[in-house]
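fyi for ur records
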Amino acid sequence: MNAIRKNVIQPIIDLWSLIVGLKVTGKYFCQRHVTVHYPRKIIPAELTDTFAGHIELIPSAKDPTIPKCISCMMCATNCPSNCIKVLKQKAPKVSPEQEKEWAEAEARGEKVKRPKAPKNPAKFSYDYSLCSLCGTCIENCPVSSLRFSHDIYIVATDRKELTMDLLARLARQAEAQAGKPADRAPGVLEQAAEAGQEASAKEA
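which gave:
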């Protein structure tokens, strides 16, 4: 009985398993490809809206180069990976003459409005190599100034390249939307995409 099972029944079971697997393979083999041949082709932007990449700053409504961030430090304080560094801006320097005038005005009982430091940060550094993409910074931001980016093409050959200046990135995004050239050299992916497009043009 064992010999029959080993030499007859088991090969039939194995053959049926192979047929089932080939059926699945054949089904998808005849369908249209869902992958793209990068860098000859890229994924349309509307198909990457659900991708949660590294975090980025959201611009203010008045000025797209200035973030909504108010430098409250909630993101840096709550980040479990310690990958966010925020530097607050300092109040404008006041000359001794101006300080003397204010002191005299206060002595007369007048209200003096001293200049305050701007709320937007002076520096916003983000280390993508440490980030766990947990979204804690986004959830704890009181003014909703952070979000996940949809950049699926980010690549680096060194961990240091993954440390981003999010203020500079915001400025580049504003320039791109305004149709101005960004003040940076093309990255590895941009060069590869250009090379792929040139190769496609030659083949055509």
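Residues 182-193 have pLDDT under 50 and may be disordered. thats all i got for now
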